[in-house]
Write a structure and sequence with these properties.
Blueprint (H helix, E strand, L loop, with lengths): L1 H51 L14 E2 L3 E2 L3 E4 L8 E7 L2 E9 L5 E8 L10 E4 L2 E4 L5 E3 L12 E3 L6 E2 L3 E4 L1 H10 L6
Parallel strand pairs: 1-4, 2-4
Antiparallel strand pairs: 3-12, 4-5, 5-6, 6-10, 7-8, 8-9, 11-12
């Protein structure tokens, strides 16, 4: 009788150990699946944020969308109308030793827009310049996005620094931004891309 009782106790004990082992195994599997799911969600989330709001490294963007013309030093900027498309063109300049850049683009309504490649709020950071991604310009400091049709419309805030019609001359073949206007802008843009 004692033997049967001990066998029953041992049998129940072994069954309890097996149930606990199965529970622990289920908990371990659920934990692993949860950790993997969170890791995947984190990777996807970081990728999404970097794609949509993070700074864009010029080396990874489409070069066709970020074409730079040769450096212009201490002279009027003359832009050929025939070169201007819906892809922004960037004209690097050196005025009295200061580096700056002018961007020009044809907006969706066909008008030509010009601005200094500097975010009015962020230029002093040295990173407050724009690159084109798709059909928008993105500030490399504050990540503000601007459709090409917004260029040159407003001054202040995070807008690209506009070059208004009174500060340039446009003919059927060229747009000229005079050296005098470029010299006035150099003081504001002295820390551009420092």
């Amino acid at each position: 009788m004692k033997k049967n009782k001990n066998e029953k106790i041992n049998k129940r004990h072994r069954a309890a150990i097996q149930r606990n082992a199965k529970k622990k195994k289920k908990i371990a599997i659920i934990s692993i699946i949860t950790v993997l799911g969170l890791a995947i969600a984190l990777v996807v989330g970081i990728g999404f944020l970097n794609r949509n709001t993070g700074p864009v490294n010029i080396g990874t963007t489409n070069v066709r969308l970020n074409q730079r013309k040769p450096l212009i030093a201490d002279q009027d900027l003359v832009i050929l109308i025939e070169d201007i498309t819906t892809n922004a063109l960037f004209y690097p300049m050196q005025i009295d030793g200061y580096r700056m850049e002018v961007l020009v683009v044809r907006a969706s309504d066909g008008t030509i827009r010009t601005a200094f490649n500097a975010c009015q709020s962020c230029y002093a950071s040295g990173m407050g310049y724009y690159v084109q991604v798709g059909n928008v310009l993105i500030c490399q400091n504050c990540n503000m996005r601007f459709d090409m049709s917004q260029v040159e419309l407003q001054a202040g805030g995070c807008n690209p620094v506009p070059i208004f019609p009174e500060n340039k001359t446009q003919t059927s073949e060229t747009i000229t931004v005079p050296l005098e206007h470029l010299k006035q802008a150099k003081i504001m843009l002295e820390s551009w891309r420092s």
